[in-house]
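Reopening this one. Same input as before:
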Amino acid sequence: MALQLTPLHPLFAAEVQGVDLRQTPGPALCAEIDRAMDRYAVLVFRDQHLDDDQQLAFGEALGPLEQSRGVVDAHKMRLKHKQMADISNIDLDGKLLGADDRRRMFNLGNQLWHSDSSFKATPAKYSMLHARLIPPEGGDTEFADMRAAWDALPAKMQAKVRDMVTEHSLIFSRGQLGFTDYTEQERIDFAPVQQRLVRWHPGSQRHSIYLSSHIGRILGWPVPEAMALIRQLLEFATQRQFVYAHHWQQWDLVIWDNRSTMHRARPYEDQAFARDMRRITLTDVAPTLEQQMAA
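Same output, byte for byte:
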C-alpha cells in the first residue's frame, strides 16, 4: 500500500494518515514505512492507541530491537519489556520523580541535542516514541535534519571533517550538566565508543553529520580544540531552518532515523504534571566504522 503522507517541514518530517498500528504491519507496509523514512527521516502517526505489546510488535516488524537501556538505576524500571525505555517522570509507585531523584537528574540530559544510542558500539537505527500521557504545555521534541546540515556545510569544512572519528559516551553528555554520580558498573557500561563524524545513508543515498552531545573527543585532536569544533558544528546544524518542532498530542507515535537526525526534549513542569512516554529502539546493522562510506 502507498502511505498517505503530509510534509510537516520543507526539508523533512511527515505525518502519516490511514494506518492503524494496533495491527502489526506486514512486509509490504514495513517496506513503505522504510521508504518514507529514507525520504523524511521523521514520521508522525497520530491517534495510535497502542499498549506495550502492540508497540513492541510494531518495532519488531521493522527490524531487530536494542536489548538494553542507556540509563542509571536500571533496576528501578517500571515497564515489563526490557526493550522498552521509560521516557517519563513517574516512579515505580506511579508518583512523580522527586526534584532530587537521581534518574530525574540523569534524564535532564535528554534536553541536549543527541542521537539515540550513539554511545553504543552499534548505535541506533530508528527510535519510536509513543505518548501515553502528556503535560498541558511544554515537553515538545525538536528534530534536526543532519543530511540538510551536511549539504549546507561549506565544502572546505566538509573536507576537514569527512574522515574524523569521535568518541561518544553518556558520561560526556551528562557531564555537560554537571552529572557525575555513577556506580563503578555504570562507568564500565558507559565506556566511550568510537563513531564516524560523517555517515553515508544507504537508503537516502545522502551523507549526514553524526553529531551528538555524547561526543567528548575527536581522535588525534586536543580535547578543547575538538570540542570547540563540535560546538561549532552543532550550532550550525541546529539552525532553525534545519529543525522541526513536534508538539505532542496524546497517543502520537513518532519514528525517527538516528542516522539522519538529532533531537532534543524541551522542558515542561515535571514537578507538577506527569508525562508518560515509551520508546522502542531499533539497532543499526553494525558499528559506524564498519559501515560503507560512499566515494
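So the earlier flakiness isn't reproducible anymore. For the record, The radius of gyration is 18 Å.
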